[in-house]
């Protein structure tokens, strides 16, 4: 055979990449004798040899192939390993030589095999244009759930998984395709690609399909190339997708003048360091296989293709069963993922055969064991929190302190009288169930009392952020159409009343009929929206009761606990602080107005009142940990945080300082009521904190944009269903259902869900891992921010022609900052300070970009859209350029503080930014005094400097 097949005598000169054929070669047969070994020893040795030869690399300076003969115990059976490099033989050639090696047929004479004719330039130009048009929409390589970036895998380790479809089912399956005008290969490939696309984040695959140049029977060699197919799952029957696939393959075969190497180069600029075509689908149905009665049978194999992470092969075994083989790189894909892919393809084929139709919904053949924690709405917990609050307030059974705010405190009887007074005042103004009352007040005892009075009277309460700009506040009030606005006198809102004016002299509680299980609107909360305007979320008591009931039980909360509410009262987490604490008879502590952003005061309050429960967004907790001593926080027994990325470093710090603490991760947007998913953080959560598992009565589905459910481990849009859902949104006084959409469950049942702006994926244990957010929503220090809302506000500036607002990373940390890239409407662009001042008229401080870049035009992606990745990269790379030498006293002070704290000046920090939010600690104060004295020539008293909350106050002190 060595003398017969020239490929077996071929070697490659590395410097010139030229092939040479030796006139003769001594056969390279290696023999390993295990006849005297035990069965166990032989099996272990064979496995070791298999691992060794599977990963071996041939030396091209000698013919790159090997055959190893292993004599097994007893000398009656043998195993034979064969290894060939595709530099000299393609798959079809290898299968031909192996078949000849083990059959007894005489070797037929072979014609000289000339290389394929090179295409002329005209044909190449035509083929190039065809491929450029065909692949114009391909932006990135196939987005399977890669375990690490493919470009970072230097030494790939290969592995094989496979499935078998028996010959009878294969025959029925291909007949179904033939009846619809499909080749057998097309039918199989369409099912493979359509199913595999479910594992791609965008339900699209760009795959390489090896093809061979037409040739006469001759010397086996490597005459193959490949074409590229961009397969996208569409909302259409599988048959239509298969017919389109068949047309694409036939079209590619007509344009082989633009080679596979050319295609890879064409796609490479779009994929950075990653391989252009990491997924290959090979049709091996025409390759030779050993006959069923051969004295030797195929055992296993492994194909290692450079620049490929997943190679799927369709081939026959000796019995004409279909082998679906997946050779893959272990560092790229987990074995359970590849196994799940093949199982899904196999099950879909079987289901199609059993139903006699290609057009069976794919969800009928998929398994979703990762949905194990989802429970129906009927599993929600009942909790009469309003009844318990009323009993605590008005039955004289409680004696201790109910609420503390700064130096003020109210015992239960006094709080009950204040709530009754406010309730009677509301009734005197003809307000009752369904009426809307806006509460435009700072955190205070009066705010709490009015909130409770509204809830008990079934009046819809709307807490409004008192720090909102005037225009924004006007919109919030106009949209919710309140019958009454309650605010301080200096707010100057027409028709409003102050808390004192609302109070009634009657402190006897009226009749309260509020139902804790009601699904009618109970309160409104504003949150950012992608439409360019804040969204008014309409929430109900039934959903609130479910969260409160489960949390009180799971966290074992009793009247002996002491809560602190540092979350703003217009934020959904504050609902838990207020209503959970007062429903169990616990004490609620509120920072005074001047302590709102003072983490030093928070630490003092925790120690003074022996706080046991802390619940906030991560940024607020981090401020506390930076400013409080370990002793001050010793009373805490549980810390919960949610609403943004939880840093593993923060968890490690908490574990080291307070090892006894229970640590909880919370999640879920405002539209799913307070929180709807959680996770108890354990010692094993070191790299990334899980988003968690749904609360009882709640379902979390992760879906592609098409509505198909994502397999386990595949990132998609998070949808939430069940008892926790809000009623909808309020727009100009009317209830609307934007982003509340129907989703077909895996059981085929239509469920109302909230389509969140979050992307996540399921782990096999039923926990969700957060991935990122869709374009439009981002989280900035725990606050959900709508980028379109910011863009719409800034486009009103007369000097801005167009603008793109993005979140971007600062100094390789998970924390995000806001930046804006804009096109100026005239020759003189506005200054950064002018844009910030303009933005403050329309946006809260959390929504104002800290970095502005002016450009003459926006970069475009390959498909003609604004290239947000390029803009984000520019913001990150030019971040330091904004940190020029300080020009004003405020900037000089900020620079000094940043230098002492050992961190760069972030673009969103300005003279009013609280030092505590920037990371200032008490330990920094001595160095600050010295630095200010040296650089500014002024010696400030330590007692005065420590009281300064921001750079503006330091400058006032300097003056």
UniProtKB/TrEMBL annotation:
Keyword Ligase set for record: yes
Keyword Ligase on entry: yes
Highest taxon, organism lineage: Bacteria
GO cellular component: cytoplasm
SUPFAM superfamilies: Acetyl-CoA synthetase-like (SSF56801), CoA-dependent acyltransferases (SSF52777)
One example GO MF annotation: phosphopantetheine binding
Key words, A-Z: Ligase
GO biological process annotation, one example: secondary metabolite biosynthetic process
Domain AMP-dependent synthetase/ligase: start-end pairs: 396-730
InterPro entries: AA_adenyl_dom (IPR010071), AMP-bd_C_sf (IPR045851), AMP-binding_CS (IPR020845), AMP-dep_synth/lig_dom (IPR000873), ANL_N_sf (IPR042099), CAT-like_dom_sf (IPR023213)
Family annotation (NCBIfam families): AA-adenyl-dom (TIGR01733)
PANTHER family: NONRIBOSOMAL PEPTIDE SYNTHETASE, PYOCHELIN SYNTHASE PCHF
Protein name as catalogued: Tyrocidine synthase III
Organism: Serratia fonticola
Gene that this sequence comes from: tycC_1
